[in-house]
Amino acid sequence: MAKPIVRLAGIHKSFAGVRALQDVSVTLEEGTVHCLVGENGCGKSTLIKIIAGVYPRDSGTVEIGGTLYERLHPIDSIREGIQVIYQDFSLFPNLTVSENIALNEQLAAGRKFVNWAHVRRVAQEAISQLEVHLPLDARVDEMSVANKQLIAIAKALRQNARLIIMDEPTSALTEREIRTLFTVIGKLQRRGIAFLFVSHKLNEVLEISQSILVMRNGQVVSAGPAGEYDTARLIYEMTGQRIAENAYEFTPDPGQPALLRVRRLAVPGVLQEVSFALQAHEIVGVTGLLGSGRTELALALFGMLPMTAGEIEIDGKPAQIRSVQDAIAHGIGYVPEDRLTEGLFLEQSIGRNVVVRTIERLRGRLGLTDPLQVQQQIRDWVASLRIKTANPDLPVKTLSGGNQQRVVVAKWLASRPHLMILNGPTVGVDIGSKNELHELIKRLAREGMGLLVISDDIPELLQTCNRILLMRNGTIVEEILPRQTNENALAAKLIED
Amino acid sequence: MGQSTKRPVWSLAGDSQPLRLLAITLLIFVGFSLVLGDKFFSIRNLQSMAVQFPEFGILAFAIMITMLTGGIDLSIVGTANLSAIAAALLLTRLSGEGGAGLALELSIPLAMVAALAVASACGLLNGLLVARAGITPILATLGTSSLYTGLSYVITGGPAITTTQLAFIGNGAVAGVPIPVIVFVVLAVVFAVLLNRTSFGFNVYMLGTNLRAALFSGIDDVKVLMRAYWLAGVIAGIAGIIFLARVNSAKPEYGSSFILLTVLIAILGGIRYTGGFGTVAGLLLSVLTIQFLSTGLNMLMLELSGSSAAIFFRQFAWGGLLLAVMVVNDYVERRRQRAT
To answer: Which residues 437-476 of A have a C-beta within 8 angstroms of B?
Structure first.
């Protein structure tokens, strides 16, 4: 049996009377990859913060590296070799790779002058432990997300990490980058380093981990070796119910002109010769690696990225899309890739986020905005999309990921678009909400909307789309029908060169 | 934790700043009234304060609208003076001694239109620089501020242009209320309607909160920013006319301390300098607070030192207060972040 690094027993934790953790007992052993799964709000992040010493517990015992801690401070946790890599990686974007990895300890040692040769050597050592190649002198903001993550791991290793906790480590990575990450993790694991993964991607959870912890409503409801679980059981444990998704069936209507027809669209350097059509009632998936042009295609159709060649037809009529305003005038809505910076006004209220597209129309006497109509519209959308909130006047940032995404969708639905482009519609959304968003997408298509779903979540594409377009190097290389493929075949195609 | 359902009442209210500010305003008023007695709390003093605050109070709206978009307009005093000079020039040339002899009934509206036209042009240039050229507002308007003030010097050659033809506005009153106060109140009402009941106002708040999300939501950023800076220019023009009416002269360097003062008013009034948040109510209370402080401190210093050197203390006080308010706001905000 491997030696335990962290042993928690009977942990309770409440915030202002709301119970976040209830009688949680967890043991994390060295050289093991543990996965922590659960829906948003189930207590995962609270548990991590207790291990990291950020939150004090209300009761229970915390034992780390064989020492019982009465009060665990963040510094104790770091000294015991516990490193948390958050989604933002906490790196300095304007410093180089080697500076990010090695400068910390130079500062900690209280040196007034930096020994650059030493910094480079230390950084090189840390990177070679990962057996990857990273340019030591490149600035971190020039690196891809995947490389930033590797830098963060290298930095953690320099601080003698024994347990590395990673929050949603694969959510911004492409398939190939995930492979690299998993290889690195495998190597470190063999050297005795333990990992705790928090992830929503259940396939990956099952693939990488040896031990699984499922949380629901602040309790660990299920724990055991990964071999005892499959996706269906994980979903069942997480939600307490069985969820089955059915593929979307679409029967083309030959009499109708295409809702959207794109011919030989080009944007220099990112897109060339992109041609496809989309009917009303259709859900068309667009997939490809990062850099394949999938997001750029969405931006071009939404008027954010001006096209230099090609034609767009909407409802059989030629359309010029040169600005976002043009796209909106043609009935196109876009749910962007990055919900937090592009989709939402985080500090503003849920209600304001919902009506931002339609405020101009909600006018009463004297052409002034009518507060009653505004309130009514907000209430209608919160109810019809089942956005879970006590009060729509609260800032939208108080909502969970799934509910936030519903607000972005509501914002567009309120303006009644004919065509919706959704880029990564369920990234960072928990499994129950994900399912509901998929049902919503299908409902909209049934009601007559055309939808373009950009995603690299293969099960999502197979379950929601009636057609999938595969992009590579800025163009569409293949059209795939979900019923003629499966998850493994599609995944293989995605990373093929 | 974000998902806790119970939260303190004050965070539900979303914006508690106006209430807090109301308490501070009343406290300062009552405090000075107690300490200084009827020197401060008298009809005469109230009247004298009422003719002082509209000048910078009106300018504060120009700072407010640009600050809500996430920017700032440092050229408002330059714009106000240039507009005042345009009006004064027209008045003296058309109806002054040795002028063209035009009737005042005609020359006064003409002068006002000229002032507002100049102010519009100043505002539009700021808008172009910020919205089209994409220059950081603080630098763009620092540049135009110098440009407009410089232009004023070129036009006047330095000395003030004197005209008393607008004094009836500066000293006049309707039903006992000074005309500048009426202008200020009307502007406040217009602003409250503009910000709360029009899509332009709504878009200003959204754009100031997150420019990228605004673009992705189809808000035309260039249009909104152009309008905001144009509006700031026009308000500065109105302030310019009030300057001219109050002091009976227009000169390039009048009211240079108003820039810092109006920024202080905006920040104290709860307008977030990163954009997106702030109310007219907060601004009104802040204008009153600053006027009470200004008069009260002056009287207090005079009482204590017996000299008029008190005036020099004011600048120090404004700077200190601005920094203190920002530190306190930052602290309150951080505590709130931690609590939620």
So the answer is: none
